[in-house]
Amino acid sequence: MKRNLLTSYFAFILLFLILIPDRSLLAQVQTGKSYINVSKNVTGGTFEPGDTLEIRAAIAVGNFAAFSITQVRYNDTINANFTYLPGSLKIITNEGLTFRNYTDAASDDAAMFNNVNKTLRINLGRTAGVATNTGNTAAGGGTIAYNDKPSFYGGVCIMVASFRVRINNAVAYNSLITMPGGAFRYTQSAAAVTASFTANNIMVFQNIGVCPNFVGGNAVIENNGTFGSGTTRNRSASAIVPGYSFVNFAAGQPNDGSYGICNNSSATGATNNAVPYPDNSRVFTVWDIIGDHTGAASPTAGNPATTVGANGGYMAVINASYATSPAIQQTITNLCPATYYDFSAWFRNICSKCSCDSNGRGALNALFNGPYPPGVKPNLTFQLNGIDYYTTGDIPYTGLWTKKGFTYLTGVAQTSFTLSIRNNSPGGGGNDWAVDDVNLSTCAPDLLLKYNPEFKACAGGLADLSSQVRCYFPNYVHYKWQRSTDGGSSWFDTGISGVGTPSLVGGQWEYTTTYPTFIVSMADSGHRYRVVVATTAANLAGANCAYSNNTNTFLNVINCGVILNVNLKNFTGQLQQSNARLNWLVAQGSSISSFDVEKSLDGTNFNKVTNVQQEAGMYNYEFTDPEKLMSLTYYRLKLVAPNGMFSFSPIITLSNKEIDFEVRSITNPVTDYLQLNYVIPKDDKVTVSLFDIMGNPIKQQQLKGKKGLNKTELDLVKGLPKGIYILSVANNNTVINKRILKMN
Asked: Among 439, 387, 386, 385, which Cα is nearest to 417's?
């Protein structure tokens, strides 16, 4: 029994020496300040109004030799962005376990909160006196010795002064708020020391979560955020890991404040992660033996450790300490303004036996009395330009990888920022983690452009093209139509563009963009049309910030004039008690299978009102619109043949008041053929003239218009040089002038 006890004792001492391999490097006093978002601590999230934050200021005293400091106290301030949560003053261990609780009142224990000037004080250590005020004088501060509790392996005492605040509900989203820094004050070797902390800048930002879908290349330069791959177990240092010292993996490395990049996280190159604890093949005899995350068959399980000499992917492994140092940092340029980005990474807690209880006993000690053997849980903060946007929440030990991140919307003119991922957990005894697949990519979730894959039309008929845009975010509202004449190999702008107004439909933002109706010819057959969308007009004009899902509409034009010119004999309409009554006559033996009655209020965008099936032996048809006319209204028939081909009837116009002459729309800009839509109150002549910018006449053409809406295609600008021209449209004594842009 005695031999067994001695064996256990020496085994513990050996393990202790491995866990703390270079005690001479530990400073006698170390401090660090962090905070967790209690409201999002399980899943992670951004900072939102009403969120509760727990502030944690840690002080570690000792270097495994006799040492102490006196008059130790912590002071902090609550500013107008936050509300202090009563009764939250306490001292906790570096794992977040409560060690001492205090009231807010003065003169009853070692801490107090002053609700008048919103300041607080916590006296720490043995012999700590009662807090009579929140000033920073030495009186009342306690003594902390290296071997006091809470103890880190008997040689360092770690205390964490803690309290909670709530982000005020009145703080608006996209507000930058500041959390004051606070300071420890103590006496060391008769010298007064102040250890001040930098204030934290926090952005109050809507918690959208990780982007469901991202497109485009990853903007992180370190092998697209993967750290690359290789046949050597230890890779060289990384330019995007600035806050830690680089070391190769060994029995006691990476130590606190260091990192390594490897394809095998063992101390010796072993690959068996199932070996019992403790084992010399493990770093500190307890770390997991794993490979990286990139390309793993199971994203959560990750890849196994790479055999020495084999090619394997690399990951960065961080041994975090008290400092809230950046583990990842990089400046990103050429971003798209007003665009959502996915900023995320995969993390893994790699130690299941790194805890040390308040008596200084490690998780492998038979007398260990701690509640959580893995120890301090990693907790990371994502920053942009030094501003905190998101915290991962605590990352418990599960033996699995987990993805953490958020979706960020760039400003209307923002094209760059510096991204960082920093440590947010104080202390050692855990807080060891791997990171891989750091991602910053354009986020275009569920963007869906809906087309008819083939638009069948008759030569001489009208083509109606439209696209439904559906997306997860309501910001892809700028659109333009493009045409391809070579089967989709190259695309050019048609000059048709605009801004959609999305509405929320079934959890998605949706709008429809319609290409202006045009008369098709056989030369148009085979052309393809598509819609490109972007978040701003400037993004739409560029090549890198506009988006299309590579689907398009194929225009199939055939000579089916018999449907319109022979089969439809007549189409008329009249008002009947403010309702439109439509009549049409088809020829005997017509090949039409059905008629869609379509209606429009602008003469361009038509919606189906009803479908009328063709009946054998029936040639006269009629339909009365049940909706009363309130303004100028346009009707047409869509004549559908049995083979699916269709054409449109002429448009008839009905109104409950007198119709005025007007130009409804023209193609602008224009290349060779100009589409002109105009309305006249009766059958009459219309004169169309073209002038240069100086008013000199160039061409003129007479048109025979019918009452209502007329659509025609003119070649007035064909062969003319590019530039600005004046189009003049005249009917009786009314002349309407329009400026048009001719493009080559």
From this structure: 385
Cα gap 19→632, rounded to integer Å: 85
- The first and second tokens of residue 448, run together, are 């869906």
Dihedrals φ, ψ of 40, to 5°?
-120, 20
Q: In which domain, by residue range, is 618 found?
A: 561-654
pTM: 0.71
Q: Are strands 697-705 and 708-714 parallel, antiparallel or unpaired?
A: unpaired
CATH number, position 102:
2.60.40.740
**By C-alpha distance, which of 12, 125, 699 is closest to 356?**
12
Question: Which residue ranges in the chain fall short of pLDDT 50?
Answer: 1-26, 445, 561-565
Total domains in the fold of the chain:
5
Give me the DSSP letters along 50-71.
T-EEEEEEEEEE-SSSS-EEEE
417-423 and 380-384 strand pairing = antiparallel
Give the Cα separation of 129 and 140 in Å (integer): 4
Rounded CA-CA distance 268/251 in Å is 7
For residues 154 and 87, the answer to whether their CB atoms sit within 8 Å is no
Please state, in angstroms and rounded to a whole number, the distance separating the CA atoms of residues 351 and 261: 17
Phi, psi angles (nearest 5°) of residue 562: -60, -30
Show the tokens assigned to 467. 């696209």
Which pLDDT score, from 0 to 100, does residue 624 have? Answer: 94
415 SS3 class:
coil
Domain co-membership, 486 together with 410: no
Phi, psi of 389 (to 5 degrees): -115, -30
CB-based contacts of 668: which residues, under 8 Å, 6+ apart? Answer: 495, 738, 740, 741
* Among 390, 396, 374, residue whose Cα is nearest residue 422: 390
Domain assignment present for residue 9? The answer is no
Half-sphere exposure of 575 (CA within 13 A, CB side): 15
One-letter amino acid for residue 257 of the chain: G
Residue 352 CA to residue 557 CA, distance in Å, equals 69
What CATH number is attached to the domain comprising 721? 2.60.40.1930
User: Distances in Å between the alpha carbon of 258 and those of 28, 158, 224?
Assistant: 19, 20, 23
Distance of alpha carbon 432 from the chain centroid: 28
User: Half-sphere exposure of residue 641, counting CA atoms within 13 Å on the CB side?
Assistant: 21
Q: What is the CATH number of the domain that holds 259?
A: 2.60.120.260
Domain boundary among the residues 178, 204, 230 is at 204
Based on the domain organization, do 573 and 638 belong to the same domain? yes
**In contact, 726 and 739? CB cutoff 8 Å:** yes
Pair 390, 405 in one domain: yes
Which residue do the tokens 């301090």 mark? 376
CA angle, 121 then 127 then 128, to 5°: 5
Residue 677 near residue 663 (C-beta atoms within 8 A): yes
Three-class SS of residue 595? Answer: strand
Using CA atoms, how far residue 497 sits from 97, 230, 468, 738, in Å, is 60, 49, 14, 19
Q: Let me know whether 292 and 332 are in one domain.
A: yes
Rounded distance, CA 377 to CA 355, Å? Answer: 10
Phi, psi of 140 (to 5 degrees): 100, -20
The widest CA-to-CA distance across the chain, in whole angstroms, is 120
For residues 247 and 385, membership in a common domain is answered with: yes
Q: 476 and 624 share a domain?
A: no
Residues 34 and 85 both lie in one domain = yes
The pLDDT value given to residue 653: 86
Cα gap 635→256, rounded to integer Å: 77
pLDDT of residue 112: 98
Residue 440, Cβ density class (10 Å: 0-12 exposed, 13-18 middle, ≥19 buried): buried
Task: State how far the Cα of 25 lies from the Cα of 243, in Å rounded to an integer.
Answer: 17
